[in-house]
Design goal:
By secondary structure, the protein is α+β, with helices and mostly antiparallel strands. It is built from 12 helices and 13 strands. Helix 10 packs antiparallel against helix 11.
Length: 295
């Protein structure tokens, strides 16, 4: 269900090698090419025995989180389960109790999230959750479509809709002045800050905030940014359509969102987003072949 936790377990890429080193040290020679194939592809094919023996896929630590993001999940952590004592736990640690046992448990927990240890354990655990915001956005899009209200998704949700692995804390929607007040009518019961005209030191717009099924949704129109003594209109100059739970929504290019992120001074996020961008689109914006609205 949306918002629910999910735990995905993976066998780590080199688990078979570590197991063989302890229990079957001659097998790599006895079965030529088997372990080299696991290193290359992660695949352990079924044997020719009847019935077939164990077969598996051994995941590289670098691929487990992206696989979960690609499945529409938001990844919280990747943990290396065996920690320091992978393969050797039965030789000492598992015989302990009391303070000594507690120390090793705590030590393994301290390093479980460290990527440096993920290649040296047998199993990886991805802690993730199914995001609430996607079905909420789909529901909003259906209602706004029926009401004839145009809107564009911006902010972190827009980046996530482009497949960038980023956790979404709220959903930002940009519409026109009539649209923002129509939104207020449609979702009046969920308003935590009813739509009105607001001005801060840096921004001004018709703005409202809503809590829709536990998701914060911020809606704005006529957004402007202060530059010295002037107010500069902020719009979206680019658009693409992305399916969310079977509903098409309008989203600005990720490259335009990237430039807006820089303008807001969020350089750490911008650096994370940059490798995921389309070079041609970004260059066209930088060269003003497509003039960015700088949302």
């Amino acid at each position: 269900r949306p918002g629910g936790p999910l735990f995905a377990a993976f066998i780590s890429r080199y688990a078979a090698h570590r197991d063989a080193a302890v229990n079957y040290p001659t097998e790599p020679v006895d079965v030529p090419g088997l372990y080299e194939e696991i290193e290359r592809s992660g695949k352990l094919p079924p044997s020719q025995a009847d019935p077939p023996t164990f077969s598996a896929y051994f995941a590289h630590p670098a691929e487990v989180a992206p696989a979960c993001w690609a499945a529409g999940l938001e990844v919280v952590q990747v943990l290396g389960l065996e920690g320091f004592v992978s393969i050797v736990e039965d030789r000492g640690v598992n015989t302990l109790n009391g303070p000594a046992w507690d120390w090793w448990v705590e030590a393994n927990w301290r390093v479980a999230a460290d990527p440096a240890i993920h290649g040296a354990v047998e199993h990886l655990l991805v802690v993730a959750h199914k995001p609430r915001w996607r079905p909420v956005l789909a529901g909003i899009a259906r209602q706004l479509g029926e009401a004839g209200v145009p809107f564009t998704v911006s902010g972190g949700a827009a980046l996530a809709l482009h497949g960038i692995p980023i956790a979404v804390r709220d959903v930002d929607l940009i519409t026109d002045r009539a649209g923002v007040y129509r939104f207020q009518e449609l979702f009046a019961a969920q308003a935590t800050q009813p739509v009105c005209y607001l001005e801060s030191g840096s921004y001004r717009s018709h703005f409202g905030r809503f809590d829709i099924d536990g998701v914060t949704v911020e809606v704005m129109a006529d957004l402007e940014w202060r530059e010295g003594e002037r107010w500069i209109p902020i719009t979206t100059a680019t658009e693409t359509r992305v399916a969310v739970e079977g509903v098409l929504v309008s989203v600005a290019w990720a490259e335009e969102e990237f430039l807006a992120t820089i303008r807001r001074g969020r350089l750490k996020r911008a650096a994370f987003v940059l490798p995921h961008l389309d070079r041609g689109r970004l260059v066209s914006l930088l060269r003003s072949e497509v003039r960015p609205g700088m949302i």
